[in-house]
Amino acid sequence: MTEKKKVLVLFDIDGTLTPSRKTLTEDMDNFITELQTKVDVGVVGGSDLPKQKEQLGENATTRFKYSFSENGVIAFEEGKLISKSSITDKLGEEKLQKFLNFCLHYIADFELPVKRGTFIEFRNGMINISLIGRNCSYEERLQYVELEKEGQFRQKFVKILQEKFSEYGLVFSIGGQISIDVFPQGWSKEYCLQFVNNKGYDEIHFFGDKTYKGGNDYEIFIHEETIGHTVTCPEDTVKICKELFF
């Protein structure tokens, strides 16, 4: 009899387990419960822990074997905090302020039909930038998405940031529908792998929707220690998982 493989499945959240910025559906919640009888399950998102809990439930850190927020800078294993790092310590205040001031000036001069609050969100492991503002309504978010298809707003801003701050060792990653994630080199979602690659897994699978180069799932998707899967929506995630693990 062939020995059963020890498998870990890591999921991105937005667009993979939930619609962007929406909560976990009852069907998906039930599916994850069933999947956990087959394999170990972890989540790795770019958002901070409070937002992760909004989407996955207050038990987000205990619901899964591993829970990684801010790409794994905040790391939980079986409900226990195992690591916490800070971008402030990594960059230093002088560089940080130069970067933030440049972004604020750029956003102030950028024209959109609507602009809302929280254009820069400072997190432990990254800086999240939004030209429209994270306080936009769902309808305003969708309007922005349509405008950006032609305007390529974030792509153009990322190119400017890459040129202006080329010596800072930063990665600029387009995440979700309205944001740019900024973090030190090596602090993308691959950061979380250091906490699982010595746990004896035969396979580590990753599921994400932004797996293209420049997307915030790209680095972990192509990593030599993972088997990457590109999905288009939560239903697609379920379909592929059933084909692989059931």
TrEMBL record:
Name of the protein described by the UniProt record: Phosphomannomutase
Residues reported to bind alpha-D-mannose 1-phosphate: 21, 123, 134, 141, 179, 181
Molecular function GO terms recorded: metal ion binding; phosphomannomutase activity
Residues that coordinate or bind Mg(2+): 12, 14, 209, 221, 226
InterPro entries the UniProt entry points to: HAD-like_sf, HAD-SF_hydro_IIB, HAD_sf, PMM, PMM_cap
Quaternary structure and partners: Homodimer.
Purpose of the protein: Involved in the synthesis of the GDP-mannose and dolichol-phosphate-mannose required for a number of critical mannosyl transfer reactions.
Annotated organism of origin: Anaeramoeba flamelloides
Main location: cytoplasm
Subcellular location: Cytoplasm
Matches recorded under PANTHER family: PHOSPHOMANNOMUTASE
Any one of the GO CC terms: cytosol
Gene Ontology terms: biological process: GDP-mannose biosynthetic process; mannose metabolic process; protein N-linked glycosylation
Pathway entry: Nucleotide-sugar biosynthesis; GDP-alpha-D-mannose biosynthesis; alpha-D-mannose 1-phosphate from D-fructose 6-phosphate: step 2/2
Reaction(s) the record says it catalyses: alpha-D-mannose 1-phosphate = D-mannose 6-phosphate
Enzyme class: isomerase
Active site: 12 (nucleophile), 14 (proton donor/acceptor)
UniProt record similarity statement: Belongs to the eukaryotic PMM family.
Enzyme Commission number: 5.4.2.8
Entry cofactors: Mg(2+)
A Pfam cross-reference name: PMM
The entry's keywords: Cytoplasm, Isomerase, Magnesium, Metal-binding
